[in-house]
Amino acid sequence: MDTPDLEIQLKTLPNLPGVYQYYDKEGTIIYVGKAKNLKKRVSSYFNKTHDSGKTRVLVKKIAEIKHIVVDTETDALLLENNLIKKYQPRYNVMLKDDKSYPWICIKKERFPRVFSTRRVIKDGSEYFGPYTSGKTVLTLLDLIKGLYSLRTCNYNLSEEKVDAGKYKVCLEYHLGNCKGPCEGLESETEYNENIKAIKEILKGNFKDSLQQFKAQMLEFANNMQFEEAQKIKEKLEVLENYQAKSTVVNPKISNVDVFAIVSDESYGYINFLQLSYGSIIRAHTLEIKKKLDETDKELLELAITEIRQRFNSKSKEIYVPFKVELGEDLKVTVPKLGDKKHILDLSLRNAKYFRMERFKQIKIVDPDRHANRIMAQMKADLRLSEEPRHIECFDNSNIQGTNPVAACVVFKNGKPSKKDYRHFNIKTVEGPDDFASMEEVVYRRYKRLLDEEQPLPQLIIIDGGKGQLSSALKSLDALHLRGEIAIIGIAKRLEELFYPNDPIPLYLDKKSETLKVIQQLRNEAHRFGIEHHRNKRSKSALNTELETIPGVGEKTVVELLKKFKSAKRVAHAKLDELEDVVGVSRAKKVYDYYHKNEVK
């Protein structure tokens, strides 16, 4: 499908957090932005006059909009940063410099330091983040410093130098902020226990630490040290609100390509995320038209080769939802949990949204195309001689053998035509006989259409198995319509379709759109029939209770029920209460009816 007009692209954007990219007519990326709500943010560029001349020029140059859906606003902010650094778009000024978001580093050394940095160095140190706010980093470091005594000096605290007494404790030791590992006053084991607890906090796993802090807070409070207790409480709040690391930036994942696929009967949609040093730097979704009913595996293998060539990817590893055959040079990983699975899920989510938006765009550009496709599909799947533009589905409703009714629902071009729905009260059948009821209803329906010279459907669907289908066929035979209209029966499980004179049912793919339309018809017929049956039962219940009272008509019944809500309450009402509602004469008739057996 060609790129749709901007107006159509705007209408189909999701109301989700993400990053949008504007391209000019040459296909060059000219602006990257983040949004809490993609649809609202992007639309705002086009539906208001901008004061900034730069923004007005930008809007005029936009030819195509692409977007990447993410989980949170924080992820959107980080992804925006990655993409601007990578592509240096002409109209992005703020983030083009080398400034990047801060990380918290736990240095690989004896008695590790914990500090903030904007540079990730591959020296074996551990990095947590990135954080979208420097304030968050300072708060966390302050929290860690307040809870754990860590060194801040940059001395090389090797065992030999410490034992040789090369260093002396500084002011931090005397203030109680450091326990003096430089003079051997703190063991390496004790220090590393604190580092282990700090790592858990930074990962978001701080259950043990929370318990420890709460105990400290209670101890301060019990000792009347309320200011100290308040400080711990504030730090606890920061800790409880702290979120674990982002999906879109993860230093543990190096240079990999991520692929996910969703497909339907006609197309496959493959999303590609490219990660460089743990950051998403590219996202693209490829739409492939199926030619020979290819499997998802075949489509994905084809797409991976095509996309990697197009973007000149050199990554040696890919993440995919299932095993694919791509030669021995490429490492194929199928993530099952953890960070790798999260990034694969993000890719799958973007593929799904791309497919949804394509469908919406098709409906706007060519409203009939969707219906035409489904009709052609149904004709092929159900082995019909013509497209089922007009379908009618019948369902019987008799619960516990009472008030037998039937429903006929009508779909035109794959959509409900509610003005053509019809209810039937069973007239010629005594008792609960589904087969005879179906025969009567089908006969009455098509006798009337023939008499009134109304158009007949191309397909009749009978809710029921072989027995129901045989009953409906008798009526078509009586009206000389057999062969004129295609007719099938659906078994209760909705997986078996029965045809006249064919003992072997047809099974449809559970994912097929044909089955979805048939399910929708069956559900509508069932709902419509039950609704009528319920109304009829309610009415008959009224008749048995109140309308059987001599001298009491429908109007009186309605007034009484409006006031008392049920016939039972009417029966227990006092005479003066009834008189207030329906007057003296009628109230006496109702009251006497319910109290006639009482001893006077």
TrEMBL record:
- CDD domains noted in UniProt: GIY-YIG_UvrC_Cho
Report which superkingdom the organism of origin falls in: Bacteria
Q: Where is the GIY-YIG domain?
A: 15-93
The answer to keyword Ligase applying to this record is: no
Q: Where in the cell is it found?
A: Cytoplasm
Which keywords, in A-to-Z order, does the entry hold?
Cytoplasm, DNA damage, DNA excision, DNA repair, Excision nuclease, SOS response
Instruction: Give the UVR domain ranges.
Output: 207-242
Which ranges carry the UvrC family homology region profile domain?
Answer: 262-476
Q: What does this protein do?
A: The UvrABC repair system catalyzes the recognition and processing of DNA lesions. UvrC both incises the 5' and 3' sides of the lesion. The N-terminal half is responsible for the 3' incision and the C-terminal half is responsible for the 5' incision.
Subunit notes for this chain?
A: Interacts with UvrB in an incision complex.
- Protein family (similarity comment): Belongs to the UvrC family.
HAMAP family in the cross-refs: UvrC
Q: What is this protein called?
A: UvrABC system protein C
Protein's organism:
Tamlana crocina
**Which gene is the coding source of this polypeptide chain?**
uvrC
